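Milestone M4 deliverable, item 7.
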Amino acid sequence: MNSGYNGRRRGGLMRSFGFAIEGIFHSLIRERNLKIHLTVALSVTVLGFLYEISSFEWLVIVLAIGGMLSFELMNTAVERVVDLITEEYHPLAKQAKDIAAGAVLIYALISVLIGCIIFLPKMF
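Output delivered:
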């Protein structure tokens, strides 16, 4: 089985960035949840401009968005690795996927809380 991985040590820093960008775009094309998170991120960004949030609020929003997208990418990576290792149901494989999804859920809930703390006082 050829996973396409060939020890990627050679090629330099720019090539490494290329692989990372390829992974992001691949996920954006194929992962529904990442598309949802990106849509929410763009919506929050528009709200940030509309409500003229402070520099500190932007910092918190950017960290929340970056963290959310990163968690979703890591969740996708865990799912891919588990699927690569086994096609059969295994309780540990299920736990690995569920735990990664749980991490995404926790960060998503915290991000919503951050959004509420920043935007609700401005809206009402």
